[in-house]
Design brief:
Chain B: Keywords: ATP-binding, Nucleotide-binding, Transport. Chain B: GO terms for molecular function: ATP binding; ATP hydrolysis activity. Chain B: It comes from Nocardioides iriomotensis. Chain B: Belongs to the ABC transporter superfamily. The complex is a heterodimer of chains A (about 300) and B (about 625). Chain A is mainly alpha-helical. Chain A is built from 16 helices and no strands. Chain A has one domain: Orthogonal Bundle (MetI-like fold). The longest helix of chain A has about 35 residues. The two termini of chain A are about 25 Å apart. Among the domains of chain B are: about 70 residues, no CATH class; about 100 residues, no CATH class; about 240 residues, Rossmann fold. Helix content of chain B is about 30%, strand content about 25%. In chain B, helix 19 runs parallel beside helix 20. Chain B is globular and about 75 Å long. Classes of the chains: A mainly alpha (about 300), B alpha/beta (about 625). At the A-B interface, helix 1, helix 2, helix 3 and helix 11 of A face helix 16 and helix 19 of B.
Chain lengths: ~300, ~625
């Protein structure tokens, strides 16, 4: 790439255009070793904290066997012990090490967050973009679906779905969360594409012979990257919370160790009565920590999509 | 003492990711009380930055890095926001480039005036009757009083710009900054607003700093003109001296972009190349790489802004001429520039050739349903013409005259309600979706706005390869190779340097070349160019016109050139059609239509063409090179 500076461009295009965000990212990503979007995220103090926290969670989850002294299901310790040097956070009513469970639980939360987040983002993208781009009858039908998804009370639906599903398991939890959580994102993406679909470059793509789907996903979608990322972060965050909630209610997969099931067992095992505060508090704290890290990262993503929010 | 004194002002952009850019470098000028000063230069020369600096409106990462701004005896270079607030709008006001967006969309025009009066009670006077005063102001800019009750979206672009002007004058400021206040408006509307502005200045006597890239308008309006290039002032002369005795080669280049379309022989020049990259330091004259008369010394010695002629100029050649006692005149006459485009220079396709596209009695009526009532709007009525290979047909008309509807019917975006559009033996109006896609291989579009016609996230190679792959069925590698060839054809060479660029890395002119290359990719027989030069700097317009002309001749393309700029129509077109309210009012060979304009609208358009140096009714300028004097207008 030649050394042409992008500064005059930045100086002359005074009009704030959300499309520039994507461009700034693509551009910086091409020329530097560090991707441009990452530079913008890292520069934001709140976002940096969030990224560090998230990285911490990921490292711990991936390296769980190395971090933990015992397996998460090993139950040959004393029952309902308080914190000690051997068991930092004590043991459960079944004699399992709470700390080990906590570390392995991070895996579940992250997997659910990422997979359910991706799934609901994809559903939201396909439905929202198709509805907004095509308009007319297709839009009417899809918008009806979106509205339906918005007005149906999510928690009862989730509980009903997971309670009556013939199979249990993490997959079910993920599917339930994705199916119930896409509507809001779809609505936002539909609104955004309605403003983008009349751009000249879309007309140009039609004249170039491109088909509808190609126009939607190759021409328009890249211009709303930051919106898609914000949507993904939102749904991932919601999914982590929802999984913990379902598991706490006992509707999750009892075979999977997650922070939600830990809370459920702590509550069922009378952690409060036996004074095992660590067993009860620890899953809540890490859950709050993970959700906070996502929220903090979202500040940076906002800055990515809106140059005015970038801190100087 | 002058009203506004700017001394050695520098503005530096310091973005965090890239090198510093000195957008304004050591600029010194003053504006006297009641004086009208024009500030000229191409996009990216630092004009708007200078304007914002004078108003102290710079935002990060830009900041004043040196110099002083003294307004009315007060140094405002370091003044705090609280000190500036009572000054702003009362003494210093502005009309921005996109005043369309500077009006608050959720409140009525009256409220905008009321806000302005409420914020400056002392200046506006206590207990002021808002309706009365705002009504007066609207009448001043030739708007009816009932505009007060309307919201900005209910007004046309020209009306909004007038409201913005009335707002700027609401508190009788001593100084108004106008930053390209009419760019983007219909030429006729533009002319009306500028004429009104000139009258108002006579009446109210405020000083103006008028920023524009359009030398023609500036020279007509201003008392004195500053020419800016690469962040520096390069020339400062009284307006009539800029026209007849300009000294700097850059000014000469800007002047070259004008001609009278009624002349027997019309030619315009352009300035090849791009403004310098200000993030790097330069030795020598900044203009040297683009200068047709540069000598060796220009490469190494940076000229100073020195007194010359009736003002100042920054050019070594002028400096030497002054030192030698030779009258420093026309260091670089236009005809020395090698970038000249002349109309009718080379032969075109035959006037009676077999037409490739025939529009026969086409009309379009839109049904508008509002509140249960259905009314029909006739956008186009009974229009007939034919496009022939290797010939250009210009379609002229004001906004809303139906030009775009005709373009949409020809490209198959709309179906005509009456009559037919035939391409060879196909009836375009009856094509289905799939057939339409095939048809578009033959009919392509060049867009008006090169900034929105290219996807900001897609490379040049991607944009050009899409039609190649879809319409011509080329493979990935072949498409890329062909895209390179197309870039060379439109003058972007070496192509390898441009293929992987993103649109924002290109200048406006370069983007428009890419748009043209994309339109050519599928080897179309018909090209519809929808005001392809109206968004570009005046100084490079001729470049794009020359390119279109060459492509039409070399490739035998039939082109429909939509415009409201009669000069470019004269340069490019073989025949001209004038459209007024959906009906064709004039149609004939270019020279005939332009020189013997019968329709009032055509005459208005002719009058609206800025032509520095030509006599203009009401203007007291000396006779210019125009052979045919402007006819008196009704």
């Amino acid at each position: 790439m030649s050394s042409t500076s992008n500064v005059p461009a930045a100086a002359t295009t005074g009009a704030g255009d959300t499309e520039l965000a994507g461009v700034a990212a693509v551009e910086a990503g091409r020329s530097g070793r560090v991707p441009g979007w990452f530079v913008i995220l890292w520069r934001n103090g709140k976002c940096r904290l969030g990224l560090v926290m998230l990285a911490g969670f990921v490292v711990v989850a991936v390296a769980a066997p190395l971090v933990t002294p015992y397996g998460p299901r090993v139950d040959d310790f004393g029952l309902s012990e308080g914190p000690s040097a051997a068991h930092w956070l004590g043991t459960t009513a079944r004699g399992q090490d709470v700390f080990s469970q906590l570390v392995y639980g991070a895996r579940t939360s992250l997997i659910v967050g990422i997979v359910a987040g991706v799934l609901s983002t994809v559903i939201a993208l396909v439905i929202g973009l198709t509805a907004g781009y095509l308009q007319g009858v297709v839009d009417e039908v899809l918008s009806f679906l979106i509205n339906l998804g918005l007005v149906v009370p999510v928690l009862p639906l989730m509980i009903t779905l997971s309670a009556y599903a013939p199979v249990k398991g993490l997959g079910l939890v993920i599917i339930v969360i994705a199916v119930t959580g896409w509507a809001f994102g779809a609505r936002i993406k539909r609104a955004q594409i309605i403003t983008l679909r009349t751009r000249d470059y879309v007309t140009a793509a039609k004249f170039s012979g491109d088909g509808t789907m190609r126009i939607i996903f190759y021409e328009i979608a890249p211009n709303m990257t930051s919106l898609i990322v914000v949507g993904f972060m939102g749904s991932a965050l919601g999914a982590i919370g929802a999984e913990a909630g379902l598991s706490f209610l006992g509707l999750g997969d009892p075979q999977t160790i997650s922070w939600g099931t830990m809370l459920n067992q702590a509550s069922a095992g009378g952690a409060l009565l036996t004074g095992q505060w660590a067993w009860l508090v620890a899953p809540g704290v890490v859950l709050a920590g993970l959700i906070t890290s996502f929220t903090l990262i979202n500040f940076g993503v906002d800055a990515l999509s809106n140059p005015h929010l970038r801190e100087d | 003492m002058a009203l506004l004194e700017v001394t050695d002002l520098s503005v530096t952009y310091s973005p965090r990711d890239s090198a510093q850019v000195r957008a304004v470098d050591g600029v010194t000028f003053s504006v006297e009380e009641g004086e009208f000063v024009g500030l000229l230069g191409e996009s990216g020369c630092g004009k708007s930055t200078l304007g914002n600096a004078v108003l102290r409106l710079l935002e990060k990462p830009a900041a004043i890095s040196g110099g002083r701004i003294v307004f009315d005896g007060r140094d405002i270079t370091e003044a705090s926001e609280d000190e500036l607030r009572p000054l702003r709008w009362v003494d210093l006001s502005t009309v921005f480039q996109s005043s369309m967006n500077s009006l608050n969309p959720v409140i009525t025009v009256r409220e905008q005036f009321a806000d302005c009066f409420a914020a400056h009670e002392e200046a506006a006077g206590r207990g002021l009757d808002v309706d009365e005063r705002a009504g007066e102001l609207l009448e001043m800019v030739s708007l009816p009083r009932d505009v007060l009750r309307r919201y900005p979206h209910e007004l046309s672009g020209g009306m909004k710009q007038r409201v913005a002007l009335a707002l700027a004058l609401a508190l009788r400021p001593k100084f108004v900054l106008l930053d390209e206040p009419t760019t983007g408006l219909d030429v006729v509307v533009q002319r009306e607003i500028l004429d009104r502005l000139a009258e108002l200045r006579e009446e109210l006597g405020f000083a103006v700093l008028f920023i524009s890239h359009d030398l023609g308008t500036v020279v007509e309006m201003a008392d004195r003109v500053l020419v800016m290039y690469g962040g520096e002032l390069v020339e400062d002369q009284p307006a009539d001296a800029i026209v007849h005795d300009h000294l700097h080669p850059y000014t000469a280049g800007l002047m070259g972009s004008y001609a009278d379309p009624r002349d027997e022989h019309v030619e315009v020049a352009f300035i090849p190349g791009r403004p310098p990259d200000l993030s790097r330091s330069h030795e020598g004259c900044l203009f040297a790489p683009r200068c047709p008369v540069a000598v060796d010394a220009c490469e190494s010695e940076h000229p100073e802004l020195l007194p010359a002629g009736r003002g100042e100029a920054r050019c070594l050649l002028v400096e030497w001429a002054v030192a030698d006692g030779v009258p420093a005149r026309k260091a670089a006459p236009v005809d020395q520039l090698d970038a000249v485009f002349a109309a009718d220079a080379s032969p075109r396709g035959a006037a009676d050739g077999e037409p490739v596209l025939v529009v026969d009695g086409a009309g379009k009526t839109y049904k508008v349903r509002r509140g249960g009532k259905s009314t029909s709007v006739r956008a186009v009525h009974d229009v007939s013409f034919a496009l022939r290979p290797g010939r250009v047909t210009a379609l002229v008309g004001q906004s809303g005259s139906g030009k775009t509807t005709i373009a949409r019917m020809i490209t198959g975006v709309e179906r005509p309600s009456d009559g037919t559009v035939r391409f060879g033996s196909t009836d375009v109006g009856s094509l289905g979706r799939r057939a339409l896609r095939g048809y578009r291989r033959h009919v392509q579009l060049v867009f008006q706005d090169p900034f929105s016609a290219l996807n900001p996230t897609r490379t040049v190679a991607y944009a050009i390869s899409r039609p190649l792959r879809n319409h011509l069925g080329l493979g990935k590698q072949d498409a890329r190779a062909r895209a390179g060839e197309l870039l060379e054809t439109v003058g972007l060479s070496p192509a390898a340097q441009y293929l992987d660029k993103l649109p924002h890395q290109l200048s406006g002119g370069q983007r428009q070349r890419v748009v043209i290359a994309r339109a050519l990719a599928s080897e179309p027989e018909v090209l519809v160019a929808d005001e392809p030069i109206s968004m570009l700097d005046v100084s490079i317009r001729a470049e794009i016109v020359a390119l279109l002309d060459r492509l039409v001749r070399e490739r035998g393309i039939a082109m429909l050139y939509i415009t409201h700029d009669l000069l470019s129509a004269r340069l490019l077109a073989d025949e001209v059609m004038v459209l007024n309210q959906g009906e064709m009012v004039e149609h004939g060979p270019t020279m005939e239509v332009i020189r013997e304009a019968r329709d009032p609208y055509t005459r208005k358009l002719l009058a609206a063409i800025p032509h520095p140096g030509a006599p203009r009714p009401g203007g007291a300028q000396t006779a210019g090179p125009a052979e045919v004097a402007t006819p008196a207008l009704p």
